[in-house]
Write a structure and sequence with these properties.
Elements (H helix, E strand, L loop, with lengths): L1 E9 L3 H7 L2 H7 L3 E5 L10 H4 L5 E5 L9 E5 L5 E3 L5 H4 L4 E5 L4 E6 L7 H23 L4 E6 L23 H12 L2 E3 L1 H4 L8 E2 L5 H4 L2 E2 L2 E6 L6 E6 L11 E7 L5
Parallel strand pairs: 1-2, 7-8
Antiparallel strand pairs: 1-14, 2-4, 3-4, 5-6, 6-7, 8-12, 9-12, 10-11, 13-14
């Protein structure tokens, strides 16, 4: 049996958390895999300490637009292959996708779009959701085990945000966004956090401008999902609100599994 700890964190700027000293937490925590979203940098802009972390292989996917979006994966075991898109240019050029293939599972580190800016961006978000589902299903249908992490940018149910009624017409809690998560789960994926914790008040993002974190007026929009056949290998799934440095906090998962996929 193999045991793996994976952490995921929307850092709201990789250079920002590095300058604050918050990246030191990643080094101290020593996860087997660390997935970061909203890195806001191309690889050439990063200091060497962020590109070459002792004991890890590092991979980056950056947006064509500078200072925007971006994801990074740091992994102790070298993946057998790495890809940075769905093969659809309008999604791939925003640097939101990093897929790392291992013997026992495929890991999707995804920074899903935010739909608040305009009706056009909301449609882009929904299109991205649908393209992602089609893409990930091709691997599951091929018999692969799937782990998905990242900033989904939608709270699924009323329990997943502090003020559901006030936000029912805001992107991030719109009926069509929530319905997509229902559809995603119906396709055979499991929200791992709710396997272990059914309590309210469990959030991963807070509006910094209003001091919402101190009052825990937040949203749970960062997730780990696995395919249902892999759920028995999930031994823990958790939120780490004590970790500062971003408007999001990290989330994590512990897996125990046979070395090869079913």
């Amino acid at each position: 049996m193999a045991e793996v700890t994976i952490l995921s964190w929307n850092v709201n700027g990789l250079r920002s958390i590095y300058n604050k000293g918050s990246f030191d937490w990643v080094i101290r925590e020593k996860p087997d895999i660390m997935c970061l979203q909203e890195t806001k940098a191309i690889e050439e802009q990063l200091p060497v300490e962020l590109k070459k972390v002792d004991g890890y292989h590092s991979y980056f996917s950056s947006a064509e637009r500078k200072g925007y979006s971006g994801v990074a994966t740091y992994t102790r075991d070298k993946p057998s292959s790495v890809s940075t898109g769905f093969g659809i240019q309008r999604f791939d050029n925003e640097g939101r996708i990093l897929v790392t293939h291992y013997d026992s599972f495929i890991l999707f580190n995804i920074y899903f779009p935010n739909g608040k800016a305009s009706p056009e961006r909301l449609q882009y978000k929904m299109d991205f959701y649908n393209a992602f589902l089609l893409y990930v299903n091709t691997f599951r249908e091929a018999g692969k085990n799937i782990v998905i992490c990242g900033d989904i940018n939608t709270a699924h149910n009323e329990i997943d945000l502090a003020r559901p009624r006030e936000n029912s017409k805001i992107s991030g809690f719109l009926p069509e966004e929530r319905a997509w998560i229902d559809k995603f789960i119906a396709n055979g994926y499991v929200d791992t956090f709710r396997m272990f914790n059914q309590e309210p008040g469990q959030y991963t993002w807070w509006d910094l401008k209003s001091g919402a974190r101190e009052r825990n007026v937040g949203w749970r929009i960062d997730y780990f999902f696995v395919n249902s056949g892999f759920a028995e290998g999930v031994k823990a799934s958790f939120i780490m609100p004590q970790v500062m440095g971003s408007d999001h906090c990290p989330v994590g998962i512990k897996l125990s599994f046979n070395q090869t996929a079913d």
